[in-house]
Amino acid sequence: MSVDPAAARDRLIAERTRVMAEVQAWQDDLSHSIEDSMDEDGNVFHLADSATETVDREIEQSLEDNAEHLLASIDAALGRIEDGSYGRCERCGEAISEERLEALPYATKCIECKRLEERG
Fold this sequence. Notes:
By secondary structure, the protein is mainly alpha-helical. It has four helices and no strands.
């Protein structure tokens, strides 16, 4: 069996939409949390609250950075569908298993090449 490019495109677009919604929610939450932690003059209410807000913002920023990396991977996979290289390992050129693409539709390597990469 081979991978259906139209089905893969649909899954990738759905995943892209989901990730974009999460990023927007984090951005909305971040802007509200910053506003909520300050008085009308822009001063922070309490030092401990400020520290908590800083940690929360750093976590949200990390999540947003990861989401942006995921979006880039999804966009690259959509590009591979367009150019006909989707489902091929970028390292060895062999087909990426359907099971792997089902689990990770933006995978760029077959499982063997990915294992080799992770071993160093």
